[in-house]
Design a protein that fits this description.
Length: 111
Amino acid sequence: MKTVGSKTYGKPVGFFAINIDKYAVYLSSFLIRNSAGSADYFEGMAADVAAQDDPRYDFGDPQEDCVAKALTSLANARLAPSAPVETRYMPQGSKLEAGLIQTYEHRKLKE
């Protein structure tokens, strides 16, 4: 995988709104880790291919700088056999999924 564009802002955390009186408060509630267990990208990640976003073009327009450089990068890539990739699958009905659904439903009930 290659990234095209500019350095990201970095945000390996997420949150849910906590309603207090008439205010919604957003506090970091969880940390997002990649498959290797890494979550250390608070400073952002550098792009592999530098390009500038150009809002004058519609999404996916091959004339837009990021799309053009991504297409060029793909066209110039040498395809080699890849090693097997380990995937992590969270089956439906998992404890995490159930907890997120319950949190969402509880918040909706209070509104």
